[in-house]
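Troubleshooting log. The previous structure file for this entry was overwritten by mistake, so regenerating from the original sequence record. Sequence copied from the archived sheet and checked twice against the printout by T.R.
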Amino acid sequence: MSHEPVEETVYEVFGQTDRGEPYVQLGSLPAADPEMGLMLARELFSRRGEVISLWLVERQEIHATERLDGDLIRGTDRTYRMGEGYRVTVEKRQRLRRVKP
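Regenerated output below.
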């Protein structure tokens, strides 16, 4: 009796801890099909009841950017939302008040 190797797909597993919370990546696993992947994901990632829901996504279906370069990061700069950005904004306003007649 010959055993043919089963082709496995790598899945990324995402879980939700409470209703309304975002799904976060928990890890990845190889499985022969989505049903087997979900069964394995339940065993691996929800055994202790940390998550209420799981998503399974084939790794090949995830489309991502390469590492972000400086231009893209600078184009979406939002440091003004951070505490240090607030301090800089206050300092700029104080300087403007001193310059005005």
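The radius of gyration is 24 Å. Archived copy saved in two places this time.
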